[in-house]
Design goal:
The complex is a heterodimer of chains A (about 350) and B (about 575). Chain A is mainly α. In chain A, about 70% of the residues lie in helices and about 5% in strands. Chain A has a two-stranded antiparallel ribbon with strand order 1-4. In chain A, helix 1 packs across helix 11 (about 270-305) and helix 7 (about 120-145) packs antiparallel against helix 8 (about 185-210). In chain B, the strands form five sheets. Chain B has a six-stranded mixed sheet with strand order 6-7-8-3-9-10, sandwiched between helices. A six-stranded mixed sheet of chain B has the order 17-18-19-14-20-21, with helices on both faces. The chains are: A mainly alpha (about 350), B alpha/beta (about 575).
């Protein structure tokens, strides 16, 4: 520990003792601690649990690599990217139109079918499952806390979060200031069921992401509406992401080799933790200059290389591998379009909504 | 005659430049010629090829005077898209010229831009892939290829444009020896089979000299010499003046000739076999000095400074980069580490700096386990000059760049100032203190990076490929600096593919192969080893030549041209 860290730590300890004493003399120390424990449990707790599960499941590097294209040959992989876009559109539309929760659950289950054909690897399946289930609990928690807050709705409260009342200008209580007042059964249920809308869309979008080559995704977009130049830019950018990460790693090593300590030491002292954080942020900020300059140099070289290969020489260009709809693709598109039309018409006629008008 | 390239009175100046980069240049290149363009960095080689392929004046839109006619087309008047079907260019860094995610897409990119029919694109892709011998890589993702393979993809994608002229601007500078061989032999094949005209800019003259028909030497925007390779590489005085180094066997033969060896009409040899034949034909006129013995350097004097004990490193993706490495480096040694890409060289030295932690085993630097040593401690002990020095420059001025490490290890202000001034002086950067490092030239940036490491006064200095893509003048400057530091007691570790640098400067060589120590000993013992071929490393040509003449009494462990020449007595010549 450096000298200034010792001084700051001492100051922090002193302030903590003073506050504790003040609370104790006023006789509200226990109440204060109980509120803080509740606040942590209801606000910070769930967020950290979500994060921790994610880290445990995938690892820091995992998140990046798991949600990318997985090379395979399956009936799903072979589907024309445009049909896949149509599929995402169809699922999104239905999840917005349907209101009755058994239908939403049915829709989510239906998006499982293509996954069975695509046969993703175990790590990817785990990641997808996690990302699909997460919204159920996330939304249940959120709605559980906030459902009907400020309205005069009849709700069943299962837990009242303890509050600290204090007067500055009028009556305030913490943590009710940020909406943490109580948890309701209706909210939990409502959030959980609404979560299925997100589950269905997540599942459909991740399917497309994992079973389609990035270049095919872009070519699909180009075929539909995207100007080729923009698509080309997107593709080149995708290709360069690993290079940037690689470069950034080299710069971090170069900083370390010249004595910049970015290691995270195990410590529960907030002063030390803040110092470490500041050092890490400083180290990361240095990365930008060399990486951006290297990217600019590469960009210049790439532009020249593209010109020498007749990029944009003709107003139209041809493709070695034309994306073509097969018979199966066409049938699939017709089915998807039919489902969408049926969905719109039926929901207009009032079907699909929850019986009685309440979820 | 029917020329492929005609250049008349070409002058080109960059805006803000004081002198023209190319000055009143005249040059004709014939069809199917294989031309090698040589000269020190900044002599105008790249500018010249950019005038031939039309990048100047179409992409770099600056004032150019004179005429450049390529396959009968004036480059100023012909659009680049048309020119690109007559002249194709392969650049230095494969990553900066590849756009697509897979090999096939990349090769098809040019023909697609020309809006050719699909059947024609397919034919061209097939042809081009066959032309560079990578049909088996067709569906591979570019990111999974080696440097040499990537560069072959770049060549194939140019071939698919069906150019009659192929320009290669330092195509092997970023490659290891295997990749270099791969690329150069493909270029030679294209020259023969496709009857293409080849214009090659290259620093690795040792490998290409034997292929080319014609060598053009440039300096300061002018053509200094233009002749067949034997005449050029036989003119040592001219080469030395320009800071260019020709093939070793040529140098050795000419030096012997200066000593009095008669040539009997045979020209400068360019390959080991030619040199051997030449010497054998004239066997009567020379002999090996008797009782010659070239002493091996002693290893193990002094205190150990780096100890590597059963070091394993397995990357998160499962790649076993190091498999039980054991070695000790002693204080004051000058060590070379060689091996193909992927052999584990960089992984090994990263452990010396604590950038990587052992999966198993341990590394001690100055007696301290790197797992327990602080970042500051290791930074003070070990200096590391990265392969691409640009990634070491992240401050806003040269001064703060050099001071960065010193501040991190918490030195007092006066000492920082003193050390920064000293390092800036050693690297000849006076006057640049307040400039932004990235606003400097490539050579200057490299010097800033070195200064920033030297200021730390490291006991161990590691240099990763210090000579890659550098001309000989630059190489010599760096290696002499390292030698000076070594004489003052600094331990030097150099990773290099340049066997000539290893032979001439290092005292000890460690060969890595597939994550294991393949050989370790005095350079004089390691480089001549026959088994080195198993690692696909080619020893310097002079080593091969000496060994092929061993039956006549030449020592088998000659390392340099001068040693070779000194070993030979010429009858009737000066002794």
């Amino acid at each position: 520990m450096k000298v200034w860290e010792k001084i700051a730590t001492a100051a922090l300890v002193a302030i903590t003792i003073l506050i504790t004493l003040a609370l104790w003399t006023k006789g509200i120390l226990v109440q204060f601690l109980w509120v803080m424990i509740n606040f942590t449990a209801f606000m910070i707790g769930p967020i950290s649990i979500i994060g921790l599960i994610m880290l445990k499941l995938l690892g820091l590097r995992g998140i990046r690599s798991v949600l990318t294209y997985e090379k395979k040959d399956s009936p799903v992989h072979r589907v024309d990217p445009r049909v896949k876009f149509l599929y995402v559109l169809c699922v999104s539309l239905l999840s917005a139109l349907l209101g009755w929760y058994p239908l939403l659950i049915g829709l989510s289950l239906a998006t499982l079918i293509p996954w069975l054909y695509a046969r993703p690897s175990k790590t990817r399946a785990k990641a997808v499952l996690y990302l699909c289930i997460l919204p159920l609990f996330g939304m249940a928690w959120g709605q559980g806390l906030y459902f009907g807050l400020g309205f005069d709705w009849p709700v069943t409260i299962i837990y009242r979060i303890p509050q600290l009342k204090f007067n500055l200008s009028g009556t305030h209580s913490f943590p009710a200031m940020i909406g943490l007042e109580r948890i309701t059964i209706e909210g939990l249920r409502y959030g959980f069921l609404q979560g299925f809308r997100v589950v269905a869309v997540n599942s459909a979008a991740l399917l497309v992401l994992i079973t389609t080559r990035p270049s095919d995704l872009v070519f699909g977009l180009i075929k539909m509406f995207l100007p080729y130049e923009i698509g080309f830019m997107v593709l080149t950018a995708i290709r360069f992401i690993p290079k940037f990460l690689h470069d950034a790693g080299i710069v971090l090593n170069a900083e370390k080799a010249r004595g910049l300590d970015m290691s995270v030491k195990k410590s529960y002292n907030p002063v030390v933790l803040t110092g470490t954080l500041a050092r890490v942020i400083r180290g990361l900020s240095y990365v930008t200059i060399p990486v951006v300059i290297s990217a600019m140099r590469s960009g210049k070289n790439l532009a020249v290389a593209a010109e020498t290969r007749a990029f944009r020489a003709k107003s139209r260009r041809t493709y070695l591998r034309e994306i073509k709809m097969t018979r199966k693709d066409k049938i699939l598109s017709i089915i998807l379009i039919a489902i969408m039309i049926a969905g719109v018409v039926l929901s207009y006629l009032g079907y699909g909504a929850p019986p009685g008008g309440v979820t | 005659m029917d020329w492929a390239v005609q250049i008349q009175n070409l002058t080109f100046k960059y805006p803000g430049g004081e002198k023209p980069v190319l000055e009143n240049l005249n040059l004709n290149i014939g069809r199917n010629e294989f031309v090698l363009l040589v000269g020190p960095s900044g002599c105008g080689k790249t500018t010249l090829v950019n005038c031939i392929n039309g990048i100047i004046p179409h992409v770099i839109e600056e004032e150019m005077s004179g005429r450049v006619i390529v396959e009968g087309l004036d480059t100023t008047e012909t659009p680049l898209a048309v020119l690109s079907q007559h002249v194709g260019t392969v650049f230095q860094n494969p990553d900066d010229q590849i756009f697509n995610l897979t090999v096939e897409e990349e090769v098809a990119f040019g023909p697609e831009n020309l809006a050719l029919p699909t059947s024609e694109i397919k034919k061209r892709v097939d042809d081009a892939l066959r032309g560079v011998g990578i049909e088996h890589l067709r569906d591979r993702e570019i990111a999974t290829l080696s440097g040499g393979q990537k560069q072959r993809v770049a060549i194939a994608s140019i071939l698919a444009m069906k150019p009659k002229i192929l320009i290669l601007d330092e195509p092997t500078s970023d490659l290891d020896p295997l990749g270099t061989d791969e690329v150069l032999s493909v270029v030679k094949r294209i020259n023969k089979e496709y009857k293409s005209t080849i214009i090659l800019v290259e620093h690795k003259l040792e490998d290409v000299a034997k292929y080319v028909d014609r060598v053009i030497l440039m300096d300061q925007g002018r053509i200094i010499a233009d002749s067949d390779p034997r005449s050029i590489f036989g003119d040592l005085e001219l080469l030395y003046k320009l800071g260019v180094r020709g093939p070793e066997v040529a140098e050795a033969s000419v030096k012997l000739q200066v000593k009095g060896l008669k040539y009997n009409g045979v020209k400068t040899p360019l390959t080991v076999d030619e040199a051997r034949d030449l010497l054998l034909k004239n066997k009567d006129s020379w002999s090996v000095k008797p009782d010659l013995k070239l002493e091996e350097e002693e290893i193990g004097e002094g205190d150990p400074i780096i100890q590597v004990e059963d070091l394993w490193h397995i990357y998160p993706n499962g790649v076993k980069a190091l498999k039980g490495v054991n070695l000790t480096i002693y204080k004051g040694e000058y060590v070379g580490i060689i091996g193909q890409n992927g052999a584990g060289k960089s992984t090994l030295v990263s452990h010396f700096l604590g950038l990587l932690k052992p999966t198993r085993g341990r590394v001690l630097v100055a007696g301290i386990d790197t797992r327990e040593a602080s970042v500051g401690f290791l930074a003070k002990k070990v200096g590391y000059i990265f392969q691409n020095p640009d990634f070491m420059l992240f401050n806003n001025t040269v001064w703060s760049e050099v001071a960065f490490g010193l501040k991190n290890i918490g030195l007092p202000k006066e000492e920082i100032e003193e050390r920064v001034r000293e390092a800036i002086e050693i690297m000849g950067l006076e006057g640049f203190e307040d400039r932004h490092p990235h606003a400097l030239s490539r050579g200057q940036r490299h010097r800033v990076a070195v200064a920033s490491v030297l200021a730390m006064h490291p006991e161990i200095l590691i240099m990763d490929e210090p000579t890659n893509g550098q001309d000989y003048g630059h190489t010599r400057m760096f290696m002499e600096l390292a030698e000076r530091l070594n004489n003052q007691g600094t331990t030097i570790i150099v990773i290099s593919h340049d066997m000539r640098v290893i032979a001439e400067y290092t005292k000890r060589t460690i060969v890595l192969k597939d994550g294991e120590v393949f050989a370790d000993g005095p350079t004089r013992r390691v480089l001549p080893m026959g088994k080195l071929r198993e690692t696909m490393i080619k020893p310097p040509a002079i080593v091969e030549l000496s060994q092929s003449l061993a039956e006549y009494g030449l020592p088998r462990n000659i390392l340099t041209v001068d040693e070779f020449v000194n070993c030979i007595n010429i009858r009737g010549g000066e002794q």
